[in-house]
Amino acid sequence: MNQISDISIYTSRMAKSCEDKLFFMNKISKVKNIVDFGCADGALIREMNKVLPDINYIGYDNNSEMIKIARNKSVDTSNINYTNIFPKDICNKNSLLNLSSVIHEIYSYCSTDEVKEFWDNVFLSGFDYVSIRDMCISENVYRLTNITDYWKLINAADKNQIRDFEHNWGSLMRNNNFLHFLMKYKYIENWDREVKENYFPITLEELLKKIPSDYEIAYIETYCLPYLKSIVEKDFGININDNTHVKLLLKRK
User: Fold this and answer.
1) Which of 17, 59, 93, 135 sits CB 3.0–4.6 Å from 82 for a disulfide?
2) Spans of the chain, pLDDT less than 50
3) CATH no., domain 7-139+198-225+243-252
């Protein structure tokens, strides 16, 4: 895995848009346990606890350094625990599995077998709810880039970033690559890591096909982050018209 060059910047960015990441919390009932998969420093769990303080929270992350940081930041909170072992023992116990900005990292850094194990843990462990919030595009994004927007970008963006990106992902004349670049050009401090990470490993249509028959969709929304739209408009004069994110809440039947 490409190392995070500045953990403090990485975790502060992970903590942003917390309100958006907590979209599911007013849509669930009878949940006593929430597992946050890929919890990093626990910032999101601490925000969840402010909303629903009577729930037992378990942060799971395979990064031992992150677990150590998370424990230190939650040391005075008895209903929050952290582990680097996937907590299957709380499944089937009024539980919710939260996947916030996780799926794209699994596909970027895990083997085929590990990706399969991930989906097995998600859907075969018996969670009552599965909440997903991640970057995700539809199949209709795979088309040629608007030529006017293309010229705006290549004339204003950092030439080294464009070179690095196209070396890894291909031409910005493809609209999916164009959006991909716009999603990550601001991540200068951890650029060597971010440029190689696949933000769009599966389409929305592929994600929906993974939902097994014993789950139903309780909520779904596709959208583009308002902050992303505004900063891209400010930096390049480009209006993003495609959806780049999905919020999805699944409920076990």
Assistant:
1) 59
2) 1-15
3) 3.40.50.150
